Amino acid sequence: MVFDFLKRGDATQMAAQPTETKASATGPVIAYGGAGRVAWSPRDAVSLTKAGFAANPVGFRSVKLIAEAAAALPLVLQDDAQRFEVHPLIDLLARPNAAQGRAELFEAFFGQLLLTGNGYFEAVQDENGSVSELHVLRSDRMNLVPGADGWPVAYDYTVGARKHRFHVGEGASPICHVKAFHPQDDHYGLSPLQAAATAIDVHNAASRWSKALLDNAARPSGAIVYNGADGQAQLSADQYDRLLSEMESHHVGARNAGRPMLLEGGLDWKPMGFSPSDMEFQKTKEAAAREIAQAFGVPPMLIGIPGDATYANYQEASRAFYRLTVVPLVSRVTASVGHWLAGFTGESVALKPDLDQVPALSAERDQQWRRVAEASFLTDAEKRSLLGLPPLASDDV
Q: InterPro entries given for it (predicted)?
């Protein structure tokens, strides 16, 4: 019958039902209509990368600056009792695969995360189930497959006509997906390139306009005007050729820079420059460059954008860059990667950046150590806890 599902089952049927599994109540809503199918990203990551990174110097420098600085931060591995100097995960991160070291691996990962809002690690396991290699997968080739509860059940990696599916089930996942916050997407992160897309278009259009100006209508530094006796006379062919020859030999080139010009009767020099509209266009380009840098969290001073006096000096800008952009990014990524890798070994370890070895943060780190060391009301164990250090062993107390 059609309405049989409304009837209450007997005790036997109720007892045979599986035990309820706790899960998010909104998961089935998120997965409605998309269970088992690929959740395609709503943005065109390839076009954004070409326009905002490969074809824009401000976006290129911002991504490189963040990725290189984040990949260069030293990392520490510790648990509740100690900080490890030797550990299989430390060896794995030091040489994740045959082609990359730790810095190259994380630079590629941070670059993908900044360009697309998503970063993917792949773990290659050996016959014992241990992770033997780590690889960074291109975000524009990866697509998430949600299940009935809204959580991913697989990841599809597509190259041309070929596709490989990474299944996510029981046990540790072969894929570690780190995504930036996106308020309107449940499965993918928001790239800074999307937030800065308008500024990137303005900056690229200004660059193309400047190039077209040089190609088609570039203004000379000035013009020599021949008035003649009645204001309408023209130079003869010999006079014109002699004037061009003297200009090229005495007033053109680096060796003649600044040499005064001697003009004969009837010749007048008219300097030319940028019009007010040209100057406003240049200011618009600089404003767009500043917006691109701000979207990535890079102080404009660090990438040479003129007219920015937000920071008192370069050192303060560098400190703000590390404290507000690099350190939060690295802390979030390493926490996810450490938890993911610990799932393969079953250990309770944490991976995090070692801020004591960051030169840009040395001044404020010294102040913190001094304040904690001078706090006489704290025990040594409390001081170590405040500084993020594991407690000492009983024989070291």
A: Phage/GTA_portal (IPR006944), Portal_HK97 (IPR006427)
- Rounded distance, CA 191 to CA 189, Å? 6
Taking the whole predicted model, whether its pTM rises above 0.70 is answered as yes
Residue 139 CB neighbours (<10 A)? 25
- Neighbour-count burial of 179, counting CB atoms closer than 10 A to its CB (0-12 exposed, 13-18 middle, 19+ buried): buried
C-alpha–C-alpha distance, residues 121 and 270, integer Å = 63
Q: Report whether 110 contacts 329 (CB < 8 A).
A: yes
Give the residue from 368, 202, 374 showing the smallest Cα distance to 282: 202
Classify residue 161 as exposed, middle or buried by CB count within 10 Å of its CB (0-12, 13-18, 19+).
Answer: exposed
Residue 257 pLDDT > 70: no
Question: Is 84:78 a contact under the CB 8 Å cutoff?
Answer: yes
Spatial separation of the C-alpha atoms in residues 235 and 231, rounded to whole Å: 12
Domain limits, the chain: 27-196, 358-397
- pLDDT confidence tier of residue 118, bands split at 50, 70 and 90: very high
| Nearest-5° Cα angle at 158, 153 to 162 | 115
Question: Is the per-residue pLDDT at 22 higher than 80?
Answer: no
Name, in order, each residue with C-beta under 8 angstroms of 147's C-beta and a sequence gap of 6 or more: 31, 35, 36, 153
- How many CA atoms lie within 13 Å of 152's alpha carbon, on the beta-carbon side? 23
Taking CA atoms, 259 is separated from 249, 267, 365, in Å, by 12, 17, 56
Measured CA angle at 35 (ends 33, 36), to 5 deg: 135
Long-range pairs for 314-317 at CB < 8 Å and ≥24 separation?
315/360
